[in-house]
Chromosome partitioning protein ParB
Amino acid sequence: MAKKGLGRGLGMLLGEDNEAEAALARSATDIARLPIEFIIPDPEQPRKHFADDAIAELAASIRTKGLLQPILVRPTGKNKDEYLIVAGERRWRAAQKAQLHEVPVIIRELDDEQAAEIALIENVQRVDLNPMEEAEAYQRLAEKHERGQAEIAEAVGKSRSHIANMMRLTGLPKKVKAQVREGHLSMGHARAILSAEYPEQVASLVLERGLSVRQTEALVRAAREGGVGIARKEPKASAPAEKNADTRALERDIAEALGMEISIEHRGKKGGTLTVSYGNLDQLDEICRRLMELPR
């Protein structure tokens, strides 16, 4: 489904239907200014990590050009001079660093559920969340706000399968979640590790050896089929045996002949596997053509 912008997602979640974009446009023209100390971050904000270098870069831009995009806030209801950030915490942090005394804001009356959903949509559509933050935000919408996967998908402009795959990441162990959140493991790594019997040990091995997503998938598959043992308490013993010089040379020769990535895995008397990795359908067609041309 193609994205139709922030307004469509917000309109659906706030029950505005066709008036969503008009309502947001009216809000956008009603920009106020608030002392920066009146504004506080929302602890329920889906985005938890803010890169210092990115904040510093934005602060430098703000010092030169000012804060061009207002921050969306809502009254806390506890103090007339206190507002929670709904969208724009990164800008608020950078404005603080730039030592601004006042910032432009759009003030909206929103309840906790509306604010949580707007914050998620704003972050997801700007690609500001890491995979773990995104997964946990979807999970909160599903559990706390009783949103179905199809409804979440429609709101954020993603496919239902994407939402389902992301939400599965919340089943990872705490240690692996942290590694994904900190950027040490990619979304692809996390999805592969999710199906492992001992995900923490697989994650440690992936980081130790610098395995690609494809290699991680192969490792998990081999462990599941009994080709590689991964012990719960002894992850280092699970590493595949080092390939000898002859095997590596053979891999290079075949790779050069085919122009593709090759991997050979010996399993002793049980034989082994020869894996040819292709990058696109043209390469797959070329592999098939060459195999069919072999003499029988």
The radius of gyration is 25 Å.
